[in-house]
Amino acid sequence: MSDLVPVAEPEAYRAPAIVALAADAPRLEDLFAFMAEAELRVQTLRMRIVERTVTARGEGAVTSDLVLRHPGRARVTRRASMDPLSREYEVWATDGHVVTTYNAASERASVRAVRPRVVGATRPDLPAFARVREPRTALPAESVVDTFVHPHGLIRNVLLTGPVAMIGTSLLAGGREAFVLRADHPRSTSLLTDRPDRWLEVGVDRQTGFLLLLVEHIGDHVTQHAEAVSLELDPVIPDDAFLVHLPSDVRMLY
Fold it and tell me: Which pTM value belongs to this model?
C-alpha cells in the first residue's frame, strides 16, 4: 500500500516569475505574486522571529529561529525563554523525507516520515483557489515561520478576504526596507475574533517578498505581534545545523 501514496520529493528549482520589483511602489497584484515566490529567491536562509501574544492568560513571547537550505532541509527552534539553561524549547527538523521533533520540557521526541500530499492536489489544471502550492522546502504547518517564508496561504486565505491597502514603508529586520499593508476585517478566522474592528498590519521585504511583520489588531488593542528581527540571505549553513541530538533517555512518540 505504501507504494500507492509515495512521499513527494521536494520541488525542483524553478526561477521566480518576478525577479525584482520596480523602483516605484508596485500594484497589490504584483506584490502578492512577488510574495508567493519568496522562497525561490534564496538557496539558504536564516531568520529569527519574535512573536508576542496577548491572551486571557496574559502576555507571552516566543522566539523562533529558522535555518533553511533548499531543497528540503530545515530546522526550527522555538523558545519560550531566552535563558540559555531553560528547558522551554521545541525543535522541528526535516531533511525532506523525515521529520524529527523534540520537546525539551516534556523530554518527548518523534521521528516520522513526511506526510504525503493529497493525490492530485497540486495539478496545474485545478483552479488557483483549489490548488495546493507545493513548497520547495516544507516548514511546520500553520506556524508563524511557515507564514513568513511561504506567504501564499496568508495572501489567499486572509488578505484577499477583505480590503487591503498599502499604507507606506518601514525599516524592519535590522534596516531592511519593507512595504507595510493594512488588511481590514479579514474573514478567515475563528468566530471569537470575527469582528468588524479586526485588522492586520503586514510588512513585506522589498528585496525578497518574505514577510517581516504580522500584527493583529482588534480595535486599539494588539493581540498578536510577530516580527522578523533578523534575516540572512544565502548564508553558509553546515550540515550539523540541521541535526537534532536526542538524549538517550528521551521518550519516543509513535
Answer: 0.87
